[in-house]
Write a structure and sequence with these properties.
This protein is an alpha/beta fold and about 300 residues long. It has 13 helices and 11 strands. Helix content is about 45%, strand content about 20%. It is rod-shaped and about 100 Å long.
Length: about 300
C-alpha cells in the first residue's frame, strides 16, 4: 500500500500560522526599517529576532525580508504578510481588551456565603484586609447555615463560601482554613455550673439542649459526636442564629453547645460557664468551599489567600 500525501491529516492552524510574538516583530521591522531597532523596541536581542524571522519564513515558505548592511527591507511577500499580520494583531488587541473588561467586571464584586460562626467571628477581619488590597471591589455577604452556603455556591449565587460541617458538601471543592472547638455552656445558676467532674457524654446526649437548626455545621458535628451515645435528645429549643442561642442560654433556659469562637466575651464575663465533657470529640474543621472544578479567581482567590495567612 503506497502512501498518499492527500490523505495525511492536516496540521492545525497553530502549526501553520506564526505566533503573535513573531507577527509583532515583523510589524516592528516594517516600522523601523531595521531588524536591530525592531529587536530593541521589543526588548529582545538581535540574534533572537533574526532567528524568529527565519523561523517565520520557514513556516510560511516565503522570504519576508531583504537584509543588507543598510537595514532590512520587506520583500513583496513580506509587505503582504505584514498587512495581514497587522489585522491579526489588531484583532488580538481587541480580544485582550475584551478579556480585560470581563476581568474588571468579575473583580468589581465578590459574593461571599458563610455559615454563621465564620460570618460573625472570622470574616469581618478578612474582609477588612481584603478591602485594603482591593478597595474597588464591592463585597456582599450572605450568612446562613452550612447547607444554605452549599446551595448558594452550586446555584451560582455566591463566588466563595465558608462552612463548618464535618465534610465538604456534595458538588463543591474546598480546603481547611481553620480549626474550631464546640463547647458546652450554661448560665451560672444552672446545676451543671457546680459540677466538679466532667460531664459524661451520655448525660449530655440525654439532656434537652438549646440547639442550632438542622443544616448548621454546629448541629452536624454534635449529632455525629453523640450518635454512639444514644443520639441527641429532643431539643429544648431550636434557633437559627448563634446570638439567639447564647441569649437563651444566658437567660437560664438550659444548656447549649456553641463554637468556642462565639463565646469569648460571655465566658470572660462569666455570663456563661464552660462545662467540660469527657469521652467525646467536639473539634471540627472550618473550610473554604467553591463549586467543583472552579478554583477561585480574582478577589475570591485573594480572600482565600488572606484566610491562609491568618491561620
Amino acid at each position: 500500500m503506497t502512501g498518499d500525501a492527500s490523505q495525511a491529516p492536516p496540521t492545525s492552524l497553530a502549526h501553520r500560522v506564526p505566533d503573535l510574538g513573531a507577527l509583532e516583530l515583523l510589524l516592528a521591522v516594517a516600522r523601523h526599517g531595521s531588524l536591530g531597532r525592531a529587536a530593541r523596541d521589543l526588548g529582545i536581542t538581535q540574534p533572537a529576532a533574526s532567528s524568529r524571522v527565519r523561523s517565520m519564513e520557514r513556516r510560511l515558505g516565503v522570504a519576508l525580508l531583504d537584509r543588507s548592511p543598510r537595514g532590512s527591507r520587506l520583500t513583496g511577500a513580506g509587505a503582504l504578510v505584514t498587512d495581514w499580520a497587522r489585522r491579526i494583531v489588531e484583532a488580538a488587541e481587541a480580544f485582550d481588551a475584551g478579556a480585560q473588561a470581563l476581568r474588571d467586571r468579575r473583580d468589581s464584586r465578590l459574593r461571599v456565603a458563610a455559615s454563621m460562626t465564620i460570618a460573625e467571628y472570622l470574616l469581618p477581619g478578612w474582609l477588612i484586609a481584603l478591602r485594603a488590597e482591593r478597595p474597588d471591589t464591592a463585597v456582599s455577604l450572605l450568612a446562613g447555615n452550612s447547607a444554605a452556603v452549599a446551595h448558594r455556591l452550586v446555584t451560582g449565587e455566591a463566588d466563595l463560601g465558608f462552612v463548618e460541617g464535618l465534610s465538604i458538601p456534595e458538588g463543591l471543592d474546598g480546603t481547611v482554613i481553620a480549626h474550631d472547638r464546640l463547647v458546652v455552656v450554661v448560665a451560672p445558676g444552672h446545676p451543671w455550673a457546680r459540677r466538679r467532674t466532667p460531664l459524661p457524654p451520655g448525660e449530655l446526649a440525654a439532656t434537652p439542649l438549646i440547639l442550632r437548626e438542622h443544616g448548621s455545621g454546629t448541629r452536624q458535628v454534635l449529632d455525629a459526636a453523640l450518635a454512639v451515645h444514644g443520639g441527641l435528645a429532643q431539643p429544648l429549643l431550636e434557633l437559627s442564629s448563634t446570638t439567639a442561642v447564647k441569649a437563651a442560654a444566658e437567660s437560664g433556659a438550659g444548656p447549649c453547645v456553641l463554637s468556642e469562637l462565639a463565646l469569648g466575651e460571655e465566658l470572660s464575663a462569666r455570663r456563661l460557664i464552660r462545662i467540660p465533657v469527657a469521652g467525646v470529640r467536639l473539634r471540627r474543621q472550618l473550610r473554604a468551599v467553591w463549586p467543583t472544578g472552579h478554583r477561585p479567581t480574582g478577589p475570591a482567590r485573594d480572600l482565600l489567600a488572606l484566610t491562609a495567612r491568618d491561620t
